[in-house]
Specification:
With 91 residues, this protein is α+β, with helices and mostly antiparallel strands. It has one domain. Helix content is 14%, strand content 22%. The chain has two helices and three strands, in the order E-E-H-E-H. A three-stranded antiparallel beta sheet has the order 1-3-2, with helices on one face.
Length: 91
Amino acid sequence: MIVVYGTSQKTHQIYPGEFLIQTTDTDFELTGLAYDTKFNLNNEVKLFYDSNWFEVAPAWCALPIPITPRMGTLPASYYDAVRRAAAHLKK
């Protein structure tokens, strides 16, 4: 699995290779995020999808009780933003 870094800091500064998901976006609730968050496609890490890196969230965090580590998803409405960021990756 490839994971890219994300932060809720300095979301007003978007650099080449980054995209922003905002709390005011129509599909924000589907993302599982709590704050405006920018993601940096220039900084990716390859991880095994196993219990060393991913665990199911504690049951008190969400209902229904989670059965996988996934806490959200990237809705299709963000695909164009990801494509634009990918087109500007640092070489």
